[in-house]
Amino acid sequence: LTGAQDGSVRMFEWTRPQQLVCFQQAGNARVTRMYFNAQGNKCGVADGEGFLSIWQVNQTTSNPKPYLSWQCHSKTTSDFAFITSSSLVATSGQSNDNRNVCLWDTLVSSGNSLIHAFTCHDHGATVLQYAPKHQLLISGGRKGYVCIFDIRQRQTLFTFQAHESAVKALALDPSEDYFVTGSAE
C-alpha cells in the first residue's frame, strides 16, 4: 500500500509490476498515515485535511470508493489505530478545540460516531500507538509530550514531557512492558 504527497493511494502485489487497485487518485490532501487492519481485509488512510477513509481491500473495481470517510480533526489527522476488530478506531491529529486524540465507532452513523475525545497536546498530536493487552492508547505531541489513555475508563492516566521537540515515532514491545519514543531532534 502506497500513499503520496499528492494524495494518491495505490495497492500493489509483490509478484505483479502494475498496481492492483488505485484507492484514491492524485489531487487529494497529502497522505499522513496508512494501515491495514489486523485481519488484512481493510485499509485506512489519514490525510492532511483531517479525514480518515477506510476501504475494503478485496475490491474488484479499479477505483473503489471508501465505505467510510469522515473528518476526524478540523486541521489534520496525523495517525490512527484500528482497535479490536476494526469497528473501533482511534485517531490523533490537530483540531481547533484541542480534541486531538479521539475514539470512533465505525458501525454507527457519522453524526454519532465520535465516542470520546481527549483534550490534550497543545498544537496537535503527531503519533498514536495502541496497547491491546492493557487497553491503552499512547500518543505523542508536537511539543514533545506523551499522554497515556485508558480507553475502557476513557480517561488520561499520565502526561509527561519526553522530548523538547515533536514526538515523531512510538513503538511498543510485544509484551507491552515498554514503549519507545522518537523525536524530531
From TrEMBL:
GO terms for biological process: vacuolar acidification. GO terms for cellular component: RAVE complex. Keywords: WD repeat. Pfam families: WD40. SMART domains: WD40. It comes from the Eukaryota. WD repeats lie at residues 160-185. InterPro entries: DmX-like/RAVE_component, WD40/YVTN_repeat-like_dom_sf, WD40_repeat_dom_sf, WD40_rpt. PANTHER family: DMX-LIKE PROTEIN 2 (PTHR13950:SF13), RABCONNECTIN-RELATED (PTHR13950). This is DMXL2 protein. It comes from Pomatorhinus ruficollis (streak-breasted scimitar babbler).
